[in-house]
Design brief:
The complex is a heterodimer of chains A (about 280) and B (about 325).
Chain A lengths: L1 H29 L6 H18 L4 H25 L6 H23 L15 E3 L2 E3 L1 H23 L1 H11 L1 H6 L4 H27 L8 H11 L5 H22 L4 H15 L9
Antiparallel strand pairs in A: 1-2
Chain B lengths: L1 H19 L3 H26 L7 H18 L4 H18 L8 H21 L1 H4 L5 E2 L5 E2 L2 E2 L3 H24 L1 H11 L1 H6 L4 H27 L1 E2 L6 H14 L4 H17 L7 H15 L3 H18 L1
Antiparallel strand pairs in B: 1-4, 2-3
Helix pairs in contact in B: 2-7, 2-10, 2-11, 2-12, 3-4, 3-5, 3-10, 4-10, 7-8, 7-10, 8-10, 11-12, 12-14
The chains are: A mainly alpha (about 280), B mainly alpha (about 325).
Amino acid sequence: MFFQFILSGLAIGSLYSLVAIGLVMIIRAVDVINFAQGEMVMIGAYLCFTFYTILKIPFLLSVLLALLLTGLAGFAMERLSIHYLKKPSIMNMITATLAMSVILKDAGRIFFGSDIWPFPSFLGDQAVTLLGLRVVPQNMMILAISVGLMLTLHLFLQKTKAGLSIRALMTDREMASLVGIDFHKVVFLAFALSGILGAAAGILIMPVIFVSFNMGVIIYKGLVALVFGGMYSFPGAIVGGLLLGVMETFIGGYLSTDYRDAILYLALIVVLLVRPKGLLGES
Amino acid sequence: MKKIGTIILSFFFLISIPLWMKDIYYLRIINMIGISVLLTLGFNLLIGFTGQISLGQAAFYGVGAYVSALLSARLGIPFWIALPAAGMAGGLLGVLIGPVLRLRGHGLAMATFFLGEIVKIILVQWESVTGGANGIISVPYPRIGGWVLSTNEQFYYLILIAVILNYFVIIRVIDSRVGRAMQAIRDNQEAAEVIGIHATRYKIIAFMIAGIFSGIAGSLYAHLTAFVSPESFDVIKSVEILTMVVVGGAGSLPGSIIGAALMTILPEVLRIFQEYRLILFGGMILFILNFLPKGLAGLTGQAFSGWKRKKEI
């Protein structure tokens, strides 16, 4: 049981990491917590579901289309909510992203109804025995793909020119603009990338929680992972998400399922107070 | 002199409303506006005058509503004790979250957001006490001796008294040493601390005052609708309260009233678009944030200043 808990915790946690990385990206680019990030998860899942199940487009192509379109949606969201704010205070920006989240969630409900659409498991829910340990293949796959995505993102940020300009801007905005880095292009990239990450999480989680307009609540867990990781750090967001996933499975398994989320949220507040720079950062 | 005249006139106008407004539907909306004003005035003190973010306003409102509903429906305690108890519960929550108020910006936004979620989870899960997702039904009407307050007219006056009291308290606070300390914190916390203002203490006071009036608003809501359930106090409600303040104009008390009125009336007007209600609600927030950065109060301020200038010429 113990090992299985850790593994399924890591699998679900890796999805929280993906959401949290998207949040870090936007915090570091424009200094706002994007409450509409959860809706990117919903949009990605809905799009992939529509392409694959309804329009019968081959699965991989459906995934690719869903990722790209959600990336665009992420950018459109930025234009419609915070880009033209007259007074971009933290208060106004947060209100704007919250409003956007409400709009997108309800648009999802209107387009697709309140039904929960089941989606077949990629590899099946049956546990198999591997090296003497019981593992669920689907969890392994989620974990592997998430880690693959994170590595790809890491390579993108480290090796490409676009990635370099994002990192430069996130480190020192004024210096970056002095050397001619286009702020608007980076904002576009940041929102598009976080949209893609959200969509990836949405597609991976489809067979687990199914497709519904309410999928965006995963943002709550993304926010907890974000805080565990210290809000501004990519590695922090990854570790925070994985840790949260494991904590969640253990609390749910041994303590209480009813109050599981309340305990996690309380942990978030404690981390904010005791280690505002995250569990990895220096206190 | 002119100001006093305006106050007296508007006072008589407010008192007269139930005398000529016979439509129960409208009166009920007016009552809901009153309850919203109780929520926004306090939080404007927090957001507009102390400069603190809060995304968990519905928690204070919900705690007040549940305390009042539980005391009167389960324990048979009279409304007149349950109401102040609800106010105290809201205020107490404001003080209890004191440690969180050390946080600023994003940290405070997150902490208050999840505080609201924790309260919601407790309301849903602690079924033996809160009735779970079904909530508490048949919250009794307030009574004085044998006289039962059950109509919207009677509630109107009850709410009016609370709103006037609230307005008066907030104005007094803003104009006092405490209020000036709060505004100093809003403008520059470091500078305020340098001249000896204990920032966290004043933030707690602001949260406490906002909490007390939200608790009272919750109690009035519980007894007016005779029913409470966790749904009424979820994150959408918090966004709504936040919006009332931002839409009206943070830092403007008349703005809070305009915001509360608008955000209560509009959903009723848009009832024919019931299906798209939340989309319109969100769209309106974005529109106001983008085009009217000072909120509606800024708009009337511009209109009035233009009018004054014309008069001078």
